[in-house]
Each structure stands twice: as C-alpha cells, then as structure tokens.
Amino acid sequence: MGLHMYNLKQVRQFMTHLLSIFSPRCLLLSAAAVLATMVSMMMGWTADYPMALIGTAVIFPIVFSINSAYQRREEALGHYAHMKANLRSIYFILRTWKVGKENEAPEVLQKNISAPLFAVRQVITEPIDDLRKNEPEIYLSFANLAAVIEERAELSKVTGAQESVCRTYLNNVMEHFEELKHIFQYRTPRALQAFSDVFITVLPILYAPVFAAIALSIDNYYLAFLVPALFAFVLSSLDNIQADLEDPFDGIGVDDIVINAEVFVDSLTHHCEGKAA
After folding, report:
1. Which of 48, 142, 183, 277 is the most exposed, having the fewest neighbouring CB atoms within 10 Å of its CB?
2. What is the average pLDDT across 135-149?
3. What's the rounded Cα separation, in Å, for the pair 236 and 23?
4. How much is the CA Rg of the chain, to the nearest whole Å?
5. What are 192-224's pLDDT values in tens digits?
C-alpha cells in the first residue's frame, strides 16, 4: 500500500512538472504550424530549408537564456542561504548575552531577527514596479535589528569586539539582500528575449513547406502532421522553461525559490525549547 501511494505521488509530481511547460501559446503555435502545413500541401508549396537556421536563430539563444536564468536562480539561492545563516548567527550570539532581564520573552528577539526575511519576501514576490514602495520596510527591519544589537550590548556590557562580530553579521545580511535585489531587478536582456519570441512564433509557419514535403513523402498524412506540431511545441516549451526560470520569485514555476520565513522562526522557537532545529 505504501509503495503504491509512493508511485502515485511520483506520477502526480511528474504530471505537474510536465504540465508546467504547457501554455496556450504551445497549442496555438502547434495548431498554426499544422494549418500552415495543410495550406502548403494544398497549394503544392514544398521546400527544403536548412535546419541549421533553427539552431542558430532559436535553439542557441533559448539555451543561452535558460543557462543564464538558471545561474541567476542558483546565485539567488546562495544569497538567501547566507542571509539565513548570518541572521541565525546573530540570534545565537544575542541569546548568550546576559541582559539582566528576568523571564525575558524570546519571541521579541525572534521577531526582530526574522523581520528582514519577511520584508525580503514582500520585496521580491511583488511586482518590480512596487520595489521602491516596499524597500523602506526592509531597511527599517535592518535598523531595528542594529538597535537591538546595540541595546543588548550595552545591557550585557560585552566588549566592543563581541558587538562588532554581530554588526559584521548584520552587514553580511544587508550585502546579500542587495545582491538578491539586483538579481530580482535585472534579468535576461530584453532584446535577446524579443529576438527569441519573434523566431519561435515565425519559424513553425515559415517551415510549413518543409513539413509539407515530409507529409507528401509518406502515405500517412496524420502522422506527418505530428512533425510540425512537435516542432512548434518543442520551441514554445523551451521558451516557457526559460520564462519560468527568469523570475524565480513569482511563485508560478515548479522551481521557484520560496522564502520560508515562518519555518525560520519555527526553527528559532525549537532552539529556545531545547529541540533540534
């Protein structure tokens, strides 16, 4: 029973990933390619274009864009991980400082430590046009955390070197946020994206005479129509993959980055309770 449920889960995941590359554009381009092939067959238009044009005009730019978007996603993951690591380091250090307050609620410290993650999530998951409106919230969270570090350093009477370590961690958090923000702002060159979009739309129709020649060379026309349909589908699917990777924060693609601020807070809570985070 357990193995059966596991297989069903795998099938569902596979179907989810497969359907993620579909879009109405895939169906429209496939239908247009098949229709153009039928028209070419009826008009007797046949040709033998060089297939190298496809690789030069479409495949190479798309693959380059996919690789670029993937590298940006991996860099964003690295900056996100560094932000969490530095915030957690600040938390562990501040928890060891004795501030002379009895029964101090750890939730107050946890709130200030995790506030930057909540603010970052708001900044990078909303439209770019709202960036300037959302930025002040995260800088305010950094300022509040800096004030907490200074206050606790004074109350606990720690050395300047110990306080400096915390401030260094906070500086690292801010640095990685700026890197993450720039990844969010600047994406694949628009000219390259427009170039690929034009040829992905035009080539399946321009190659209709080639598909017509293939269809006329075999007896089964229905099978021959699969060639233009698959041709258009492959090109548009590659473009969809690139588009999903282009913005790894929008929550649409299956490979998007999720800022789990609540999980981060929960791990801090478990630490306070003496459990493994």
Report:
1. 48
2. 91
3. 8
4. 27
5. 777 778 888 888 888 888 888 888 777 677 777
**Alpha carbons 207 and 34: distance in angstroms, whole number:** 11
Give 160-164 contacts, CB < 8 A, sequence gap 24+: 162/93, 162/97
What separation in angstroms does the CA of 219 have from each of 62, 163, 216? Answer: 34, 81, 7
Residue 100 and residue 155 in contact, taking contact as beta carbons nearer than 8 Å: yes
Q: 241-273 as b/e, with b when 16 or more CB fall inside 10 Å?
A: bbbbbbbbbeeebeeebebebeebbebbeebee
If one compares 180 and 65, the residue with the highest pLDDT of the two is 180
CA dihedral 45→49→53→59, nearest 10 degrees, is 70
Q: Quote the CA–CA distance of 261 and 122 in Å, as a whole number.
A: 11
Q: Flag whether the pTM goes above 0.85.
A: no
Contact 145, 76 (CB under 8 A): no
Specify whether the CB–CB gap between 93 and 166 falls below 8 A: yes
Nearest 10 degrees: Cα torsion 19, 22, 28, 34: -80
Q: Any idea which residue has 């009477």 for tokens?
A: 157
CA distances from 44 to 23, 32, 33, 78 (A): 32, 18, 16, 56
Closest of 77, 67, 14 to residue 248, by C-alpha: 77
- Within 13 Å, how many C-alpha atoms sit on residue 153's CB side? 16
- Give residue for tokens 């007896």: 219
Per-residue pLDDT, 274: 46
User: In this structure, which amino acid lies at residue 143?
Assistant: A
